[in-house]
Write a structure and sequence with these properties.
Length: 263
Amino acid sequence: MKRIENLVSTMHQQDHSLLDRLHIQTDTVVVNQCDREGREEFDYHGNRILWIDTCERGLSRSRNMALRAATAEICVITDDDMVYRDGYPQIIEKAFDETPEAALLRFEVEGIEGVFKKYSHQGGKLNLLGSMKVSSVEIAFRREAILEKGIWFDELIGAGTEFPMGEENTFLFACLRNQLQLYYVPQVIADLHIGESTWFEGYNEKNFVGRGAAFTAMDRSLSGLLALQFAVRKYKLYKKDMPFFKALRYMRKGKKLYLQKKV
């Protein structure tokens, strides 16, 4: 059994060619949301692949299904538009060995068609503010540390739901609330295709309602402050489409709708 395992969320795959495109180099669980149910296990270049076809929908639900099926010590969150670099399992394993106190590590991912993010050259501990800048494709974590705290992806939010954003930030907030140690490691593990977002349709009502729901899922007591900082920080980007106080009202609406569904 290898120490590293990729957890892949994807949709409508008709064959296993995704493994080649991802450049998979370790054991992997693939959750393929499609129109059939099935489960198979096979060898891929010496790696154990568990491939799950499911009719269920929702990115967070897919990630949780993969996490329940995982067996390795360290899990790596994977989207289907990534290309992993040679030796990424060794980079991840070494980083965890060098930070035994870490439950979760954030790595770097570079854009293929353009810049994905600008990263600091200085590694270090992640706090609440820092965790809000993390994308799911950068994350690897110790499986037992997460499961012992009962931490899962919130299935009310994320792509494929009414509130299509923020599932990774909610996950990280839950880790921090449970006093788990999170660190950033300035090493590249993969490249990412930069395409049009499947959920971002501009700074409209749907976007702000979704933000309000995501902030509430992150931390109910801090949701108002998180919404306010977002409204201020992003004002130049949305001011032509949405007045400031209307954006705040829509985020409060998102909070209310999320809490209604959470009951």
